[in-house]
Structure of FG-GAP repeat protein:
Amino acid sequence: MPLSLRSILVAGALIGTACLAAPAVASAAGPGSTDDRDHADTLLRDTLTGSSVGHGLVRTALLSGDYTDFPPQPAGEGPEFGFSVAMDGDWLAVGTPSARTRTDEPERVMGVVFVFRHQADGWQLVQRLTTTSNGASPRCGHSVAMRLPNLVVGCPGSDWPDSGESGHGRVIFYRLNANDTWSSAGTAYFPGAGSACGTQVDVSATGPSGTAVAAIGCPGWNSETGRVWTRRFEGSTGSWSEDWLTVTASDGASGDRFGSNLAIYRGEVLGVATQRLAVAAPAKPIWPAILAGKVYAFGGANWTESQTITHPAADSFGLVLYGTGLAMNNNQLIIGSPGGMTFECPNAPRCGLVQRYERQGGNWQLADGGGAINLGGNPAGEQVGMGFGSTVALGFDNLVAIAAPRTDGWRQPNGLAEEVGMVELRRGESGTWGVSWTDHLGEIGPATIGALAFDQGHFGTSLSFGGRRLAVGYPHTGGLVTGRRGQVWIYSEDRIFADDFEQ
């Protein structure tokens, strides 16, 4: 694997220290899993786990893929374990879209999803979900979404069967069985060559009626105008419906890439369902800016467009990419714009920005926002092109995670590594939701000890909260011998150091 001089220097400096630290923090916990539970003191924990005080989370597991019986994995960026993650309770799905899985066709980029379960002895690999999708590069696992007992996997590079047309996209639905295994609950291909359906997927919780709704983003449809398909799981039939709905933007145009990101919410109270859908078109121009971006809000049984949201000054800020990061629950909407500009970062390409909208009077109202703090960065503070807001997630106790996967030198010696990545955690001072600069709780990322952080490791490419845990995808990290294989780091609430939440 070709490495830059910067990468070689960083890796060489870390080999000795990583080997010294390993016996103190690592213990076997099944295939592809390592649990770290050394709480000797705050400083040692901070050094070994990549945790910083203030947010009350420590890294409790490091997961990797098992490629036994697979063909040799690609060089370069590797199989991209952790490109997407989805966690719910004790279950975790990890998308690995560049994996080669077929020995009879070793060059096809099929992709695979690894499913883990947390048990008494740590995280255990339960299944590898492979596919027989059509096309040279289906990239299954490019996106994953999980709300128990449903799992949705996106394969945006899949071809329409036996048509000769490429890139329609496909999704595969999985269902958790009573014996704690996952089986296919249906699959769907989508019309329109190049639509790339499955680029992003999301699925709602299952209501008391047994109904759940899935949303599938197709940003390449109709010359990249983009659209979204939705499907319903009906508890009465035990299957995903064939009569789906399509969602498009009222002002959609070629190149907008509507459906590049999306978030869905569905809740039931006394038999009455509330449905909300947020869809990003991050490449939409707002004159005179290109790639300004816009987020569309939909609701009701037929997904009626109710509101559009843009960066308050998108026409002045150039390459904003508003909506690249997107997360939503019943009353909170977090929008990340990795090209957003703040006064602390006035240069192009921009550093990134995140904004929080709150549900008030039937509409989303801007509540607060801010750029990166990046205390552990080298250099510290906002960095041009760091991509702050590329990925966002809503978690427990009003906790918000915001990734900047292209942050340089995060806690690395002399700042030698580029695009290592980091994640900031935020919450309002009074314990309410909040994402402004003053709501900063702390940061997590690859520390000097704990991983060989090559250039362009991109920690924070994916994020997912599940219960009182946070999963962080680190898809391009690796070792000098293995090459880039990717990892997922699991952070849990540290009950011993719970007072950190108040600092």
Notes: The longest strand covers residues 272-281. The mean pLDDT is 84. The longest helix spans residues 5-25.
